[in-house]
Amino acid sequence: MYLIDILVFIMGLCWGSFLGLIAYRVPKGISIVRPFSFCDSCKTPLSILARVPIVGYLIYRGKCPKCSAKVSLRYPIMELVTGLLFLITFERLLDGTAEQYIPMAIRSLILITAIIPSIFIDIDERIIPDRLSIGLIVTGFLTSLGESFFCDAPFLSWTRSLIGILVGGGILFVVAEAYRLITKRDGMGGGDIKLLAGIGAVLGWYPALFVILISSVIGSIYGVFMMIFMKKSRLAELPFGPFIGIAALFYHFISGGGFLK
Ligand SMILES: [Zn+2]
Q1: Taking the domains of the chain in order of start, what are their residue ranges?
Q2: Which residues contact 206 (CB under 8 A, 6 or more apart)?
Q3: 119: CA distance to ligand 1 center in Å?
């Protein structure tokens, strides 16, 4: 572990803290710039110490220093996961050239920024905001467009990014329509379709198919588990976005599929 690794990890923790703010504010329509972070319960602005990622949570033992309202454990989890994903990105790319490094670092950053808040917003509100899903499509496509112009050997050319959008979004659209026709209810939302189109834009059509497959498998296992052990019968209420998000993060960061080949 070198000093630079620690710095990258700390940058990731701070970015994770910003993602916590996005997950809380975007569905409520509050500006993500101002005001500064405040307690959900008593609306007191948080002190600088309380705003330090992880440390603030530990020092105040997960409570607001003013009113003792509980601070959700999701905030330090988002910070920690983002810190680790920053570190994985950094470590994975050390051997690459700058031409390979920059587009992949951008890809990692936009995936982290769109997907991590989407997972939590979908769990709470059963929606994935357009600002995140369409944002992923646009930034993913622009990254590939820039790469097509500036790199000799782009990781994903703009044409392949476009195919990724059409295949990722298209397949899920067909599945959602088929589900709706057969069961006469809405199973998948437009948010899931746009999120997968965005993953196709950033990573290409093949990874988008992988993400559909893996998310369906873990979603089904989770659904069966919930039905057996939690006695929940209404599977239709299970949000699919978190499974898509987790599968995409798994593909890009853990399996290494999205990195240099
Ligand atoms: Zn408070």
Answers
A1: 1-92, 98-261
A2: none
A3: 25
